[in-house]
Amino acid sequence: xxxxxxxxxxxxxxxxxxxxxxxxxxxxxxxxxxxxxxxxxxxxxxxxxxxxxxxxxxxxxxxxxxxxxxxxxxxxxxxxxxxxxxxxxxxxxxxxxxxxxxxxxxxxxxxxxxxxxxxxxxxxxxxxxxxxxxxxxxxxxxxxxxxxxxxxxxxxxxxxxxxxxxxxxxxxxxxxxxxxxxxxxxxxxxxxxxxxxxxxxxxxxxxxxxxxxxxxxxxxxxxxxxxxxxxxxxxxxxxxxxxxxxxxxxxxxxxxxxxxxxxxxxxxxxxxxxxxxxxxxxxxxxxxxxxxxxxxxxxxxxxxxxxxxxxxxxxxxxxxxxxx
Length: 324
What we know:
By secondary structure, the protein is mainly alpha-helical. Helices cover 69% and strands 0% of the residues. The chain has 16 helices and no strands. It has helices at residues 7-17, 23-37, 50-59, 62-76, 81-94, 104-117, 123-135, 137-142, 149-166, 169-176, 180-189, 210-230, 237-252, 259-271, 278-293, 301-323. Helix 4 (62-76) packs parallel to helix 6, helix 6 packs parallel to helix 9 (149-166) and helix 13 (237-252) runs parallel beside helix 15 (278-293). The termini are far apart.
């Protein structure tokens, strides 16, 4: 039916009831917006609801999120280039919170939309987008082991798109060839070059200058630790198990200057020794023992503190010379 004459009134009704305290009413309005966003003659006016729908991603229940995500996917394509780029960047920071939603549909749709946003970013926003994408690689990596096959496939597609966006050739190769067991090691040990990415596995990787690479990998490791520790509480056994494996990799590659992160890892693994899954609790115990055996033991007393400071100073002095 032709809604031209009724559209103004419809927008007023939607605006009023989208703020309703009733969850059912908000869901009904979202369904109405979804239907109208799919019509050529009524889609564009629905853009006014974008800010409110963005809020629904954070505050709503899974059913509302499952309706809101397709709306965002549709309306994103109707914005002008500048607004689309800004909206894509904002979505990239919000969507990862939905990757672990209890709803299979929400997890899959959020990953699909995350992948879509990579196609809309402008060059001036690209660096910001790269940081957001890199910050959430671990979440996509973990969900390669999601119990739901549709989510695992969506995660693989999104991770492949992210690797290409970052020009991370090594990661792209591993995802494309489904070498999932090597991806964790790749995330921990390497970092893509900002322009060329890392070369194929048979060649030496093209990395940042040594000091820049170390700083960025340290920052990435902090993000990785926080994200993987959250997944130790996942209701899915495969995700908890994979999180333990990845945490073990992180712990093995940490330096003695990353003591805070190391202690967070120990606490997380200790709490998982009573896990309901024997395989997860056993893996957590084994991982904890391995990390504790490799734990650095700094010298004690004032002399030990002086030794540590001198060693740090020596490394800082030596690094520029090594680069040159």
